[in-house]
Write a structure and sequence with these properties.
heterodimer, A: alpha/beta, Rossmann fold, 5-stranded parallel β-sheet, 42% helix, elongated, B: alpha/beta, 5 domains
Chain lengths: 273, 702
C-alpha cells in the first residue's frame, strides 16, 4: 500500500490522558470490562444527556485504548465507515474509514446514535459484532481481523418514537446492553457540583428543578431535563448568570417550544431561586 | 359639533354645555371626541349626544385608549341590546373607569389554567386539577380559583397572585394540613365557628409559608411581595403576633402545633392574606373519605396480587366471599425509610414474609398518595384483599348478562378470534365473535363546524404535512439521474485505477420520497367516551384525515366497541381504498359512544386488514380513553391487559407497528406493558386532543 499523503484525521493516535470525570451509577464499568475482556460488543441504551458518551471516554481512559467516535447520520454509507480509494496526482490511495482504523489500532469504536444511520450501513458491523470479529474490506480484498484490544460500542435512545428509526433485531441481538438513566438525586447533585463548580446549595436546587421537569414527562414533555442540561445551566450560573435566566436559557428553552409548557417550567424554576 | 348633533338637539338641549367643558382639554382630546362623536352620530344622534356630554368626565378619568374601549363597549351594547342600555353605559362612565383597571390588567383563569396545572404537577405529590370555583379552596384533588383576578395593576402581578393561590392550596396537601385527619377531628369537636376557622387558617398559613420558604425561596419572595402589596397594614409587623407564631416557622412544626397554638389563642384575629382563600373542612372530609376507602381497597388488592405472585396461587381461594384475609396480616409489614423527597422525610418499604418486595409502579403511586394523606401506611391496611373485595373492586355494577347476549348467538357474517388467557398461558380458540357493523352517517354539520373551529390549525397542519410529502430527497449513487455524483465518480475513478470493477451508479437523482405508509386508526367507541371525549375524538379524526389527505398516506378508520366475547364489534368508518368523501366524513360525524372496550379481538381483526395492505410501513394507531374493559368481569384487569398485549404482540409479528394515543391519566401504569415504553402518548387535556393527534402522527412517521 502506498504512503499516506493525504491529510487525514488519525483518531487512533489520540489517547485520553487525563481521567475524565465520571461517577459510576451501578456496576456498569465492571460489566463493560468483563464484556471487553471477552470480546463482546456493547450497546448503551438511555435517554439523551445521561452520560453515555462520558462513560465511553472514561472506559477508554481506564482501558488505555484510543476512542474513535462516529456520529451516525442518515447519509452515512458503508465506505464512510470502512474506507475508500481517493485519487491524488493520478495515483489512487486507500484511506481507511474510522471503523477500519479502530480495528487496525485495536481501539474502541463508538457509534453514537446508531439508529440514525441507514439500515444497510449498520449491517457492515455485523461480522465485527459476533464471534468472527472480522471486518471484510471488499475493495482491498482484505479481511481485517480484530485484535483482542478492539472493542465495538454503540449508543441508542429507546425513547425515540419514530417507526422509521428502530434498531433491527439482527443488530441489537449481537450486543451486551447497558442501560443508563438519570443518576440518583445525591449523585446528580455531586455531578453538577463537580462539573460546574457551583456551590452545593445551588446544585441541590438545580437537581430539584430537574425532578420537577421529569414530573412533567408525559404531561406534554417528551423528556425531562437531562444531567447535561443541568450542567449547562450550572456553568452559566457559575459565570455569573442569574439562576432563573440560566434555567430558562439552558433548560426550559431546550426542552420545549410549547408556550404553556415553557411558562410552567419557567415558573417552576422561578419558584426555586 | 352642532352639525352632527343636530337631530338630537332641541330648544332645551344645546351643544353649548359639552362644548364649553370640552374646550378645557387639549386639541388632541377635543379632536378625539369630535371624531368619534361624528362616527357615532352616523348610527344614532342621541347616543352621539350622550357620548359628547359624558366625554369630558371620561377624559378626566381615563386616557384615550380607555376612552375608546369605553365608547366601543357602549356601542356594542347598542348593537346587541338597543339604545337604552347603551345610554346607560355612557352615563356610567365612572363605573367603567373604575373597572377599567381590572379589565386591562386582570387575568382570566381560563388563559392560564394550562400553565398552572403543569406548574403544580411539576411541584410534586398527587396531581391536582385546577378549575373555577366561587370560593378559593381545595378538596385535596382539585384546586378551585376565582375566574378572574384583577387586584393588581399589572397582568404579570395578577398571574403571580394566581400562582400563589395555587401553591398555598397545593402546600396544604403536601405539607400535611389535612394529614391523618388531625385537623378535621379537632374541628369536628369544636363545631362550626367561621371566625375561629379563620384564625386557624392564618396560623396554618404561617406554617405553610415557612415550609415554602425553605423549599422554594423564589416563590416565597413572590408571595411575600404580594402580601406587602395587597394586605397592606394587616401585614405591618405586629411584634406580638410575630412572637406568638414563631414556633410555627420551625422545620419541625406540624399541623398539630398549629392546632395547639390555635387553642391557646382562641378569640384573637389573625392577619389577612391575599392568596390563602378558605378552608372548607367539610369538602375535604368528604373527598378524603372517598379516596381513603378507594385507596385502601386498591392497596389491599395490590397486596393480594403480591402474595399471589409469591405463592403462585391466589390467596383465600377457599372463601370466595371474604373481603379481607386476616391471616395475611402477619406476613405483611411496612417499615419507614428516610427519603428527603417525601413531605415528612420518609417513605415506606413493603415486606412480605420478612423480605422486602418491590411493588409495581401503580402501587407505588397509591402508596405515595396514602402516605401523603395519612403520613404512614396504617397497620390495618396491611392485609390482603379476599376474593370478595377483589371482585367488587373490579366490578362496579352488575347487570344481567344473558339479555345482552340475546340474538347474538347465530354466527353468520361473524369472525371468530382467539383470545389470550394469561392464567393458562394459552389462546382460547375462537373465543370471541366479532362483527362489522355499519355506522349511520350523520349530517356534515359537525364536520363543517370543526373546520371552522380549527381553521387556522388545519392550515398549519396542511403546511407541515406538505413539507413531509414534498421532501425531495437527493438519492446518491443512482444508475440514472439528473446530475453527476462527484463522490461516486471519484470513487469509481479510483477503483478503475487500481483495477477494480467500476461501479455504474454515478448519478444523483432527485426524487420525491414515496412514503408508502398505511395507517389504521382504531377509535375507541366505548361507553366511557360519551360526551366531550367522543367529540374530541371526532374532531381529532377530522383534522388527522384532512392532514392525511394532504400527505397522501393510505388510511382507514375503524371504531370498536364490545359487550362480552360474543359481541365484539368494529365499525368501518373509512376502509382502505375507499375515498375520503362526504360519506366517510358523515360517518366520522356519526361516531357515537357504545359499550365496552374489549380490545383484543378488534386489534386482531384490524391487524388482519392491515396485513392485506401492501405497504412498507403499517401503523395501527389506537385512540383510547382507558384500559381494556368489558362487561364480563373475567376480562377486566389483568386478563384484558394481557390479552391486549398478546394481540399487539401478534400484530408486531405481522409487521404492524402499534401505537396508542390515550387520554387516560392512569395510562402510564399499564400502557408501557401493553405497547412498549415508547409506543404511546398521553394527552392529558382532552381539548388539545385534536391538535395533538396530527402532531403525534407527524412525529411518528418522519
Amino acid at each position: 500500500m502506498q504512503q499516506h499523503e493525504l491529510r487525514v484525521l488519525r483518531p487512533e493516535e489520540y489517547f485520553i490522558e487525563v481521567e475524565p470525570y465520571y461517577e459510576p451509577v451501578a456496576d456498569e464499568a465492571g460489566v463493560f470490562e468483563a464484556a471487553y475482556a471477552n470480546g463482546l460488543p456493547i450497546l448503551l441504551k438511555g435517554p439523551t444527556g445521561c452520560g453515555k458518551t462520558r462513560f465511553m471516554e472514561y472506559m477508554a481512559w481506564r482501558l488505555k485504548r484510543p476512542l474513535i467516535t462516529v456520529s451516525c447520520h442518515d447519509d452515512l454509507t458503508s465506505s464512510d465507515l470502512v474506507g475508500r480509494f481517493l485519487v491524488k496526482g493520478g495515483e489512487t490511495i486507500w484511506v481507511d474509514g474510522p471503523l477500519a482504523r479502530a480495528v487496525r489500532a485495536g481501539g474502541i469504536c463508538y457509534l453514537d446514535e446508531v439508529v440514525e444511520a441507514r439500515k444497510d450501513t449498520t449491517v457492515v458491523i455485523h461480522p465485527l459484532a459476533d464471534d468472527r470479529r472480522v471486518l471484510p474490506i471488499e475493495k482491498l480484498g482484505e479481511l481485517l481481523e480484530a485484535p483482542t484490544e478492539f472493542c465495538l460500542a454503540m449508543s441508542y435512545n429507546p425513547g425515540y418514537q419514530s417507526v422509521l428509526k428502530d434498531l433491527k433485531q439482527s443488530t441489537r441481538q449481537r450486543f451486551v446492553a447497558l442501560e443508563f438513566s438519570y443518576p440518583s438525586t445525591a449523585l446528580e447533585q455531586t455531578i453538577v457540583e463537580r462539573e460546574s463548580g457551583i456551590d452545593p446549595g445551588l446544585a441541590r436546587q438545580l437537581v430539584k428543578f430537574a425532578h420537577m421537569t421529569r414530573n412533567l414527562k408525559g404531561q406534554g414533555l417528551d423528556e425531562g431535563a437531562s444531567t447535561r442540561l443541568l450542567v449547562h445551566a450550572a456553568k452559566l450560573i457559575h459565570s455569573g448568570v442569574a439562576p432563573v435566566v440560566a434555567c430558562r436559557s439552558a433548560i426550559a428553552q431546550a426542552l420545549t417550544d410549547d408556550t404553556d409548557m415553557l411558562s410552567a417550567i419557567n415558573e417552576l424554576s422561578a419558584s426555586l431561586f | 359639533m352642532d352639525v352632527y348633533l343636530d337631530p338630537a338637539l332641541s330648544s332645551r338641549r344645546t351643544a353649548a354645555g359639552p362644548a364649553r367643558e370640552l374646550a378645557a382639554f387639549p386639541a388632541r382630546e377635543q379632536g378625539f371626541v369630535l371624531h368619534w362623536g361624528a362616527v357615532i352620530a352616523r348610527d344614532n344622534a342621541e347616543l352621539a349626544y350622550q357620548f359628547t356630554a359624558f366625554a369630558p368626565r371620561g377624559l378626566r378619568l381615563m386616557d384615550l385608549d380607555a376612552m375608546e374601549s369605553w365608547l366601543l363597549y357602549a356601542m356594542d351594547l347598542y348593537d346587541k341590546k338597543g339604545q337604552v342600555p347603551a345610554i346607560r353605559a355612557f352615563q356610567d362612565v365612572e363605573g367603567f373607569a373604575a373597572n377599567m383597571q381590572e379589565r386591562l390588567a386582570g387575568i382570566a383563569l381560563e388563559d392560564v389554567v394550562g400553565v398552572l396545572e403543569r406548574f403544580v404537577c411539576g411541584l410534586n405529590g398527587r396531581g391536582l386539577k385546577v378549575t373555577v370555583g366561587e370560593r378559593c379552596h381545595t378538596d385535596t384533588e382539585t384546586i378551585f380559583l376565582p375566574a378572574v383576578v384583577g387586584r393588581l395593576p399589572e397582568k404579570e402581578a395578577n398571574f403571580r397572585l394566581y400562582k400563589a393561590m395555587v401553591v398555598h392550596q397545593w402546600a396544604q396537601g403536601w405539607y400535611g394540613t389535612w394529614r391523618g385527619g388531625v385537623l378535621l377531628d379537632v374541628l369536628e369537636e369544636a363545631g362550626p365557628q367561621p371566625q375561629a376557622l379563620d384564625l386557624l387558617h392564618a396560623l396554618e398559613t404561617v406554617r405553610l409559608d415557612a415550609c415554602i420558604g425553605r423549599d422554594f425561596p423564589g416563590l416565597h419572595r413572590d408571595m411575600r411581595a404580594l402580601r406587602l402589596a395587597l394586605d397592606g397594614e394587616a401585614q405591618a409587623p405586629d411584634p406580638e403576633w410575630r412572637d406568638l407564631v414563631g414556633r410555627l416557622r420551625e422545620p419541625s412544626a406540624r399541623v398539630r402545633d398549629t392546632l395547639d397554638l390555635w387553642l391557646a389563642l382562641r378569640g384573637r384575629r389573625g392577619p389577612t392574606c391575599c392568596y390563602r382563600g378558605e378552608l372548607l373542612p367539610e369538602v375535604v372530609r368528604a373527598r378524603m373519605r372517598i379516596r381513603a376507602e378507594l385507596e385502601r381497597d386498591r392497596f389491599r388488592i395490590a397486596l393480594a396480587r403480591l402474595i399471589e405472585e409469591q405463592d403462585e396461587r391466589p390467596p383465600g381461594e377457599d372463601r370466595p366471599e371474604a373481603e379481607t384475609l386476616p391471616e395475611t396480616a402477619a406476613r405483611l409489614g411496612a417499615r419507614a425509610k428516610e427519603d428527603p423527597d417525601m413531605p415528612d422525610g420518609q417513605t415506606y418499604e413493603l415486606f412480605l414474609d420478612g423480605k422486602p418486595v418491590a411493588p409495581p409502579e401503580d402501587v407505588i403511586s397509591t402508596m405515595e398518595s396514602i402516605i401523603q394523606d395519612l403520613g404512614e401506611i396504617p397497620p390495618e391496611y396491611l392485609v390482603a384483599a379476599g376474593p370478595g373485595l377483589y371482585r367488587r373492586g373490579l366490578d362496579g355494577e352488575a347487570k344481567d348478562a344473558d339479555s345482552a347476549w340475546a340474538g347474538t348467538y347465530h354466527e353468520e357474517g361473524a369472525f371468530a378470534y382467539d383470545e389470550w388467557d394469561h392464567s393458562r398461558q394459552h389462546h382460547r380458540k375462537g373465543w370471541c365473535i366479532l362483527r362489522e357493523h355499519e355506522v349511520k352517517p350523520a349530517g356534515l354539520t359537525f364536520y363543517h363546524a370543526t373546520l371552522r373551529k380549527h381553521g387556522g390549525l388545519i392550515k398549519s397542519l396542511r403546511r407541515t404535512f406538505e413539507v413531509l410529502r414534498g421532501e425531495d430527497r437527493i438519492l446518491k449513487r443512482q444508475p440514472y439521474g439528473e446530475d453527476v455524483d462527484i463522490d461516486a465518480l471519484v470513487e469509481a475513478y479510483a477503483d478503475a485505477r487500481v483495477g477494480l470493477e467500476v461501479n455504474d451508479r454515478l448519478f444523483t437523482h432527485r426524487k420525491q420520497d414515496d412514503r408508502n405508509i398505511a395507517v389504521m386508526l382504531m377509535v375507541d367507541m366505548s361507553g366511557s367516551t360519551k360526551g366531550w371525549i367522543n367529540e374530541a375524538e371526532r374532531e381529532a379524526l377530522i383534522l388527522l384525515a384532512e392532514a392525511l389527505e394532504t400527505l397522501g398516506d393510505r388510511f382507514a378508520v375503524y371504531g370498536f366497541s364490545g359487550w362480552t366475547r360474543k359481541r365484539c364489534e368494529v365499525f368501518p368508518i373509512k376502509r382502505f381504498g375507499e375515498p375520503y368523501d362526504d360519506l366517510a366524513k358523515g360517518r366520522i360525524c356519526g361516531i357515537e359512544a357504545r359499550d365496552y372496550t374489549r380490545m383484543g379481538a378488534p386489534i386482531r381483526h384490524l391487524t388482519g386488514l392491515l396485513r392485506a395492505e401492501d405497504a412498507r410501513i403499517k401503523l395501527l394507531v389506537t385512540l383510547s380513553d382507558g384500559k381494556p374493559d368489558d362487561y364480563d368481569p373475567q376480562y377486566r384487569g389483568e386478563y384484558g391487559i394481557e390479552d391486549t398485549r398478546q394481540a399487539l404482540f401478534e400484530a408486531r409479528l405481522d409487521g404492524v407497528h402499534p401505537f396508542c394515543i390515550t387520554i387516560d391519566e392512569q395510562g402510564p401504569e399499564y400502557l408501557p406493558h401493553m405497547y412498549g415504553a415508547a409506543n404511546y402518548v398521553l394527552v392529558a387535556d382532552v381539548t388539545r386532543l385534536p391538535a395533538k393527534v396530527s402532531e403525534i402522527y407527524r412525529r411518528l412517521t418522519s
